[in-house]
Amino acid sequence: MVVQLELSDDEVNRIFRALADATRRDIVRRTLVAEITVSHLADSYDMSFAAVQKHIAVLEEARLVTKEPRGRERIVRGAPDRIRQAQHLLDEFELLWRSRIDRLDALLGEDAGAVASADHDTSTPTGE
Amino acid sequence: MVVQLELSDDEVNRIFRALADATRRDIVRRTLVAEITVSHLADSYDMSFAAVQKHIAVLEEARLVTKEPRGRERIVRGAPDRIRQAQHLLDEFELLWRSRIDRLDALLGEDAGAVASADHDTSTPTGE
DNA sequence: CAGTTGTACAACCATGTGGTTGTACGTTAC
DNA sequence: GTAACGTACAACCACATGGTTGTACAACTG
Predict the structure, then answer these.
(1) What is the tens place of the pLDDT at every residue in A35-75?
(2) Does the structure show a pLDDT above 60 at A120?
(3) Does residue A106 lie in a domain region?
(4) CA B109 to CA A22: how far, in whole Å?
(5) Strand, coil or helix: what is A56?
């Protein structure tokens, strides 16, 4: 039940590297939504079976998906806990940024905080 | 002030690719906390100045940092909005997973939901 | 002015990545 | 048993990546 506390640099590298490809991100999406076999996945993409196999292997090494034998087939499943770990990694950056803002606000004094925070935007992402 | 709504596959690739290196993640952390020059950054790592320059260039192409001239120096700053965009990308995966769980719960019926959700775990990562 | 500092950039090299084809082998279907 | 299916894996190729060194040049320093 307990998730690995610390991810090594190498593991983090593999996670982000695995996500840095559109085909692999699509595989993750699909395997999060439903179980699916390797060959069924391979049918979806305009590349060889072996190429898709390699993409799945990269995701598997990053532990973003798991593969389980069922007869001659291999069922691929997305690993949501690993996705959450990736989220936590980005949260860390966000926290660093916020702590910086807090320190700047402290320098500016309490009452100037409201104005300052509107300026450098600590709260809502500007997008979407 | 408004951030780009949709990220292209290529942009997403660059963001995750850029984060898939420990040195670059460290640069992002440091530039989120405080402004810092290229040469000051370069001093911190056990590699050539040019190598660090290249890492910064990768981050800049992913728009995870910005560079601004100040005299002969270049000030590097982390771009928190880009980090947030990356977070949103991972949120998307999380949502897919949750919607799957919701559908499974619906199949099991309303009252069976509580038991079922404890079983397949919508909240806390399961770990290995 | 001359010298030093900070940066940019090109050329080069070893290794990794993303694709291919071909072969092999266990599993299911007939 | 034989054929078809699903998968694994090796070999190969073009190109990207992450590092190096060397050169050039603008901006400060004295």
Answers:
(1) 999 999 999 999 999 999 999 999 999 999 999 999 999 99
(2) no
(3) yes
(4) 36
(5) helix
Say whether both B89 and B66 belong to one domain.
Answer: no
Q: pLDDT value at position A54?
A: 97
Could you read off the pLDDT of B7-36 as tens digits, one per residue?
A: 899 999 999 999 999 999 999 999 999 999
Q: What is the pLDDT of residues B81-117, one digit of tens each?
A: 999 999 999 999 999 888 888 787 787 766 554 554 4
Q: Which residues of B touch A125 (CB under 8 A)?
A: 3, 81, 84-85, 88
Q: What's the structural domain count of chain B?
A: 2
Using the CA of A54, which nucleotide's C1' is the nearest one?
A: C18
Strand D–CB A35 distance below 7 A = no
- Please check whether residue A116 lies inside any domain of the structure: yes
The answer to whether residue B127 is domain-embedded is no
Q: Which residue has the higher pLDDT, A122 or B111?
A: B111
Q: Which residue of A has its CA nearest to B77?
A: A97
Q: For B79-126, give the DSSP string.
A: -HHHHHHHHHHHHHHHHHHHHHHHHHHHHH-TTTHHHHHHHHTSSS--
The C-alpha of B120 sits at a distance from chain A's nearest C-alpha, in angstroms, of 11
Indicate left, alpha or beta for A10 from its phi (over 0: left) and psi (-120 to 50: alpha).
alpha
Contacts with B78 from chain A: Cβ below 8 Å = 93, 97
- B1 in a structural domain: no
How many CB atoms are located within 10 Å of the residue B111 CB?
A: 8
State whether the beta carbon of B72 lies below 7 angstroms from any atom of strand D.
yes
Binary contact (B128, A25; C-beta < 8 A): no
* Domain span holding position B94: 83-120
